[in-house]
Amino acid sequence: MAKKILIVEDEQDLVILLTKRLMKEGYDVDWVSHGSVAASKVRDHRPDLMILDLMLPGKDGLTVLREVREIQPELPVLVMTGMQNPAYKKQVLETGVQGYFQKPYESQDVMATIRKILSAS
């Protein structure tokens, strides 16, 4: 059975590219573009990995991350963001995310991190 990845990102072009790449590697990909629905999507679909943007409509990424940790504490999370606030980054890293990628990111680095995380689970 394919590993499930939830992308929480509001930049549709980025989601399309990332989804194509992930599906090509055999992952089952779902997507939400609004922070306010991310936690319920995790609760209902129990993904194996979440890719999370920090600047989202509805709720910011850190709030989403805290809600998700209450629902599925062991869920691996990769953050991909354009935000450049060191204090905010520190708060995000303190939640135990498995990766933090600054946009624009190197897709091969993201894919290698995803493979590593999901092969260990």
Q: How would you portray this structure in words?
A:
By secondary structure, this protein is α/β, with parallel strands linked by helices. It has five helices and five strands. It has helices at 12-24, 35-45, 61-71, 86-93, 107-120, and strands at 4-8, 28-32, 49-52, 77-81, 99-102. It has a five-stranded parallel sheet, sandwiched between helices. The protein is globular. It starts with a strand and ends with a helix. The model has no long low-confidence stretch (mean pLDDT 94).
Using the 3D structure, state the CATH architecture: 3-Layer(aba) Sandwich
**Beta-strand content estimate:** 15-25%
Largest sheet: 5 strands, parallel
Outline = globular
Topology:
Blueprint: E1 4-8, H1 12-24, E2 28-32, H2 35-45, E3 49-52, H3 61-71, E4 77-81, H4 86-93, E5 99-102, H5 107-120
Parallel strand pairs: 1-2, 1-3, 3-4, 4-5
Helix pairs in contact: 2-3
What's this entry about, in short?
This protein is of the alpha/beta class and 121 residues long. The protein is 47% helix and 19% strand. Helix 2 (35-45) packs parallel to helix 3 (61-71).
Which terms would index this structure?
globular, alpha/beta, Rossmann fold, 121 residues, 5-stranded parallel β-sheet
